[in-house]
Amino acid sequence: MVNNHEKYEMLLARVQGGAAIVTAVAHPCDESSLRGALEAAEKGILIPILVGPRGKIEKVAHDFDLDISSFQLVDAPHSHAAAEAAVKLVREGKAQLLMKGSLHTDELMGAVVKRETGLRTERRLSHCFIMDVPELDRVIIITDAAINIFPTLEEKVDIVQNAIDLAHSLGMENPKVAILSAMETVNPKVQSTIEAAALCKMADRGQITGAILDGPLALDNAIDLTAAKIKKIDSPVAGQADILVVPDIEAGNMLAKSLTFMAGADCAGIVLGARVPIILTSRADSVLARLASCAVGALVARAREVNTSKAVSV
Fold first, then answer.
1. So what's the pLDDT on residue 71?
2. Domains with residue ranges and CATH for the chain
3. Residue 30's pLDDT band (boundaries 50, 70, 90)?
4. What percent of the chain has pLDDT over 90?
5. What is the per-residue pLDDT for 281?
6. Among 7, 122, 145, 155, which one is least packed by beta carbons within 10 Å?
């Protein structure tokens, strides 16, 4: 399969021309994570602050001929300390983005969620994949496939709102949100269908804003107009969804990885709901996917700055 990721190219084009965002990169101690940060800097997306064991970072830079001489390096003895130090830079206002390096996601998120020293807000943290699927004409946001294991209805409200806010940052004015289940009818025996219906009614009542919601919808009639028409689903979302809200982490993880390994998709990753966006990349990510994750983080950070400025002026 030949990948044709013009949607990611459009994301990168969208981020060009704006100010690069100062980013605390936690423990970039392998080639993938260090190169990813430097490539984003080269594109004018980020200004990385490299946080981790100085000797390890300098060795990786030397071994792979990467020039880090123009970037600030904050020495931290190990991965846990690097996570804490990177979060501290954000709390002190010295960085507007946080980026995962070669440490485990749990280590970074452990520092983020600490009540006294972390980056928590009143909003639930959630993860979004921004998928570039060659066969689709738009990027698809999938949530939550990495953080919330079995989210409650209350938690799903934040998960959905985080995804909607992300879509706005990417230029989608009124995104279409499909709440996924195994079927498109409400079945009292299937909890995800009941929660889907509740989320849609909450949107009707203004408890979720900025998007059009529908659900429950099965995956086929959420993204394929023909499937929706065959099942006679009359909905502005069916067949045209921009955001896919999955029932739990297992469903989300399987969906994202199926698209990646069987449909040739790339997936950029970001965590929302903290004081700043958190860029999550994987060693398996392509160069384009890594850059797309950084571009998404920068766009979200810029959108927050604009919204903050508007709020202050009012």
1. 97
2. 1-120 (3.40.718.10), 121-273 (3.40.718.10)
3. very high
4. 81
5. 82
6. 122
